[in-house]
Every structure is written in structure tokens, then in C-alpha cells.
Amino acid sequence: MKLKISEPFWQVVGLGALAGMRSTAAPAIASHILSHHQSRQLDHSPLQFMQSKNVALALKVLAVGEVIGDKLPSTPNRIKRSSIGFRMLSGALAGASVYKAIGGKAAMGALIGGASALASTFGSFYLRKGAVKTSHVMDPLVGAIEDALVIGSGIELANAA
Questions:
Q1: Is residue 2 included in any domain, yes or no?
Q2: Which of 72-76, 85-89, 132-136, 144-148 bottoms out in mean pLDDT, i.e. has the lowest?
Q3: Of 14, 95, 110, 130, which residue is least crowded by CB atoms under 10 Å?
Q4: Domain that holds residue 43
């Protein structure tokens, strides 16, 4: 099936935003899309692995693990320096893969995805903390709502491709 990405900028912004909320979500969604819509632009590219159905499956398993791990009290805050870096790399990988797949510049996709992930990391962190504080709902439940938002948005992004 041919890859049809009509709004790559906004789709990569969306993937980056999801990376800021759940770091493994963006590569899992991008790999899912690319494994179902192969692009010759990725052939012989360092990003070719993102088209593999096995990679897509492995990334989905990691994403499920992250959803579970997010609820543990020992999980560090997403605004910890190492977490921020990983989320930015995650958004950058997803963005670079999508941009390269459509024949664009991988570096531009990486920049957009990484910057979106950075903004979303802080925005979603403070939004979640504020929601817990003002609603008096337990943090894991607010986290589950955040998970539902990430999953629903990811499905929509995948269906838009």
C-alpha cells in the first residue's frame, strides 16, 4: 500500500507531542505506519528498519510496557534530564522517518519531532500535575486518561497516513 501523508509537518508535530507524553509512542506509531505503507525513499537508508513489521511489533510491546511502568511510584518524572533527552530522540526518530519516507529531509523531520517532544514533555507534565492537584483524582488515574489520549491520538495519526 502506498504511503499517503498529506500533512507531514502536522503529523510529525503530533508524533513529537505524543513522544513528550509517552516516549515510546511516537516511534511505535511511526513504525506501524511505515511497516504498513512501505516507502522506497527509506530503502538503503539508516531509517529503513522503521519499515520492519518486527520492529513495529517490538516498539508496540515497549509502548505497552511504558504505559504500565508509568503508573509505578518509582518511575522518575518525565522532566528529568535523561527522560527529556530520550523523549526528544524518540520524537526526532519518528519525525526523521516520516519526512524521509515522503522524500523530504530527515534532519527537518528530526528537528520538528524533537522540538515538539520537548514542548510536550513540559506541557504534559505540568498539565498532569495541575489536573491531579485541582481535581483531587489520584495520579495513576490521570495517567490512565493521558494513556487513553495518547492511544486515541496515535490511532488517528496512523489512520491519517
A1: no
A2: 72-76
A3: 130
A4: 8-160
Judge residue 131's burial from the number of C-beta atoms within 10 Å of its C-beta, 0-12 exposed, 13-18 middle, 19 or more buried.
middle
Q: Does residue 88 lie within any of the structural domains? A: yes
State if pTM tops 0.90: yes
Which grid cell is 61?
Answer: 510491546
The model's pLDDT over 5-17, given as tens digits with 9 standing for 90+, comes to 778 899 999 999 9
Residue among 98, 92, 110 nearest 3 (CA): 98
In a domain, 123, yes or no: yes
The total of structural domains in the chain comes to: 1
Predicted pLDDT of residue 160? 77
